[in-house]
Amino acid sequence: MTDLTDHPITRRWAPRHPDRIQLYSFPTPNGVKISIALEEMGLPYEAHRVTLSDADVKSDAFLSLNPNNKIPAIIDPDGPGGEPLPLFESGAILVYLAEKSGQLIGTDAAERAQILQWLMFQMGGVGPMFGQLGYFTKLGGKEIEDPRPRTRYINEARRLLGVIEKQLDGRDWIMGDYSIADIALAPWLRALDFYGVRDTVGWAEHPRTVAYLDRFLARPAVQAGLNVPPRD
Questions:
Q1: How many domains would you assign to the chain?
Q2: Residue 45 belongs to domain with CATH number
Q3: d(CA 14, CA 19)
């Protein structure tokens, strides 16, 4: 691939600014991770609205970039060696952007490792568990009469909130300084309100976590990134 026009995705989502990072996304918790990171890091980018419909995420054009048919994904026209780099999976993209910009990933090897630890905590725990909780309480699974799936994910969400609450004791951010771990984690905490389960999981019983999300949402770059690309 010598330039962006060689990638099949550009036939459907054509770049107007091919010299910028191309973001293919939708404002879900995983999607806004990347737009917020790009805003925080000051990296020039162009956002393309890829809805969650099969017509978009299962199209040949999008599958050419992400065979797992999930948003977000990016193409960096100025990747390693000056070559375009396509990339999917929100955690991998966050790490790549942090390393590219030299921001929000710690100042030494130990801090970097701990930031990645909390990033993996979100990717492997908070995201999947909160997502399943949303499915069984607000989305397609809410009609299932068996209470066991809901009970499982309610209990797991409460447990994970307890882990976060404990970690935030004496800290403004999950690893002390603001990092990509916060950009990964906070949008999923925000999703509990969208799913209508804050009371169910005892949100108010976690005051440090409540204040943490408020701090996150007050950041100008977060406010800018939360609506990228616009839903409408």
A1: 2
A2: 3.40.30.10
A3: 12
| Domain of residue 69, residue span | 4-103
Q: CA–CA separation, 136 vs 130, rounded Å?
A: 10
Domain final position from 86, 103, 120 = 103
Residue 228 belongs to a domain: no
Pairing of strands 73-76, 21-25: antiparallel
Cα separation, 174 vs 126, in Å, equals: 14
Q: Per residue in 131-168, pLDDT tens?
A: 999 999 999 999 999 999 999 999 999 999 999 999 99
- 3-class DSSP state of 109: helix
> Could you tell me if 35 and 25 are in contact, meaning their C-beta atoms sit under 8 angstroms apart?
yes
- Same-domain status, 99 and 113: no
pTM of the model: 0.96
At 91-118, the pLDDT tens digits run: 999 999 999 999 999 999 999 999 999 9
Q: Cα separation of 141 and 112, whole Å? A: 38
